[in-house]
Design a protein that fits this description.
- By secondary structure, this protein is an all-beta fold.
- It contains no helices and 13 strands.
- Helices cover about 0% and strands about 50% of the residues.
């Protein structure tokens, strides 16, 4: 059995908020790197083997394996290099001028941030025969 807490997730911003020419590396202001946690993980694996002695030097081994036996839906939040799937907000640039200077834009929060958008493998079962000589 394997149990795990959620993986860390950063609150990326889609857009060039700091105006460095790279629109996929900015984080939401006020949040450190990996400040959020994604969904947890739990799985149970099982292996059953039986060896048959056909002769003194010849053995046949049967193997049955099951991964994620209880077929738990282990959801995950995909993190990509460009931040598109895990973006916390969009930076919307503006050219509004205020008396104190140029106002650069605003952040539009995404309601889908931290919602699982993928899953780990479902139940898998495999069988094998091994002949030892």
């Amino acid at each position: 059995m394997t149990l795990g807490s959620g993986r860390p997730v950063s609150a990326h911003v889609l857009g060039d908020a700091n105006r460095d020419g790279n629109d996929s590396n900015d984080r939401l202001p006020g949040y450190r790197r990996n400040s959020f946690t994604g969904p947890n993980y739990a799985t149970t694996n099982l292996r059953v083997t039986r060896r048959f002695y056909l002769s003194q030097r010849l053995q046949l081994e049967t193997i049955g394996e099951a991964f994620n036996v209880f077929n738990r839906a282990n959801r995950r939040v995909d993190i990509t290099d460009d931040g598109f799937l895990s973006s916390a907000a969009d930076f919307v640039p503006q050219t509004t001028s205020l008396p104190s200077g140029q106002y650069p834009g605003y952040y539009r929060l995404r309601p889908s941030f931290l919602e699982p958008n993928n899953a780990y493998a479902p139940r898998e079962v495999q069988f094998a025969l091994r002949l030892r000589f």
